[in-house]
Amino acid sequence: MEIKKDILWRVYLIFLGIVVFSLVILGKAIYIQQAEGSYWIGLSDSLHLQYREMDADRGTIYSEDGSMLSSSIPFFDIRIDFAADGLREKNGKRFNTYVDSLSASLAGMFHDKPAKTYAKELKAAYKKKERYYLLKRNVSFRQYQEIREFPLVNQGRNKSGFIFEDKEKRMAPYGLLANRTIGLSREYVDESGKTISKNVGLEKAYDSLLKGVTGKRLVRRISGGSYVPIEGSEIEPINGKDILTTIDVNIQDITEQALMKMMISNEAEHGTAIVMEVKTGKIKAIANLGRQSDGSYFEDMNYAVTKSEPGSTFKLVTMLSVLEDGYVHLNDKVNIEGGVWRVGTRTVYDSEQRGLFDVTVKQAFELSSNVGMAKLMTQYYYRQPQSFLNHLYRLRLDTLTGLNLPGETKPVIPTPKSKYWSAPTLPWMGFGYNLSLTPMHTLMIYNAIANNGKMMKPYLVNAIMKDGKIIEEYEPTTLVESVCKESTLVQLKECLEGVVTNGTAKALQQPLYDFAGKTGTALVANGTRGYADHIYQSSFAGYFPATDPQYSCIVVIKNKPHARVYYGGAVAGPVFREIADKLYSRNTAAHQLYAITEKTDSNFYAWSGWKADYEQVFNSMKKNFRDSAKGSEWTNVVNNDFQPTARELAISKQAMPAVQGMGLKDAIFLLENMKLKVVVRGRGKVKAQSVTAGAKVNKGQVVVLELGA
After folding, report:
1. Which of 253, 273, 374, 586 is least surrounded by Cβ atoms within 10 Å, i.e. has the fewest?
2. Domain total for the chain?
3. Is 0.85 surpassed by the pTM of this model?
């Protein structure tokens, strides 16, 4: 009996425990549902719903004339939701009706697999009810437009299940042109799957304006770990603004082609060429080329804003200092010691030792004498180096240019307080060593001289635009109102012009216009090997035309070790000259043309053709023209008593005319109007005809014309 009671007590206790436990569970369930329901519903949604970013359309970078330099091209990934209601209604009648014609259209567009294969794959995905089936990646905008008209797709997203995911790729329509300066926006996916943007050039400097404001799209997680967008949940992105640069596409092309030609012919390591508009500081062209491992050249670094020892182009600063401080005049004498001068334990060498001694200061500059410049520095600034350094600071050689181009390096100007300062430092600075500048800094100085002493801030962007309208505009900025006195300026211009007429750039003279500039040849170190590899940096800086400067330009080329040709006048100079020639020829109407003395032409010539054409040519040339053609429309022009004379060219529909000396257009017009068949061989004017002039001809007869110079 006691055992039975003991068993019942335990059963009741267990039952009571179960009841209590059930009540606790029920209470917790009610609490979760009522008190924490919104939290857990939100948590559930967060596992299935999330916002994905929608990139805004990146702004376009334009040249000054409105040509696109960098733009975003849309591409699309195409996916299909095979569980879409419209696709599966009526047991998939719509899908089964159009799948074959859709497959044929896809095969016809992409040519990657037969229509039967497409149909088989689509049917298999339909059977599995795949919600996020990938059909194609990176479809172009043109293909996207065509696909939207394909069978089934043209019925809309709900009925077809087609999902188009748009993205963009940054493209440069002009390819290599100013590539480093523009700096194509580059993206890559890191190991964690995160998209990393790595921009350079203007793409980086103006990234915040170009990229716009990112939008959002709500997506739902489906089986397989994929996400599909929820229609109507988008927060639209705000597209980026556009950049209107100062770059002139034609000048940029001229500059890059001229630089490329020299780089290839001299197998140089790298080089840069910059063209600046004198009066404004606008950068019209900026080319940067580096030699790749396969021997080709590419815009791999922005050498225009990378510092190095400037070499002899810096001698302009030395001359500015001694002239501005009144220490010398151009006709004062300096002994250049035959091109070799000992300074303490070191020796200064002229790159071309001409064996000269007493020369004028102007001649020392024109001949690019290192000894001459070192002596001037030692004589006038050795005890007061700060006086010279103050000139450098006034020329803003201790700061960045303000170009707003990422990667620009700050100049290195030594001072007496530096631990690297020694007795040879100052004289070596006189000819461009022991300090580092970017080519852009050097160009600013030469541009200031061309601009009558006014130093302009270089800039690459004219305006910021939104939807085709200018919202912010940039104007030319003066950095230094006058870099020197008027008397100094006159002497510096005389020196720079003298380099071209009498000095190291004499071979570059141009008979149609004058230009001014300075050559530079600097021996540069090669890492730990020092100067043993004889690597020279060739440069030329100047402006043109010298009488009314429109553009300033600098060319800096680092040559290969032991290059056969390395002087600045032979490497960088020809690049400058080619750029100047082509820019000058673009606007010959604005330049004063040289008078041409007309000479009597005693050579015999004979031309045949339409009389009105010859009259127009001779009238435009203001050349006397004797008309003896008796009103005939076709003439033979010969030299008669040193004067062009038109004689009648007899034309008859029954007789073969003399077409020798005619242009092909006139000859064909004349003969085909006579119903003759013309066969042409060669190029040029008519040199011979198969049917003799005056011979009888019939309708449809074949006449062979031989052409030649």
Report:
1. 586
2. 4
3. no
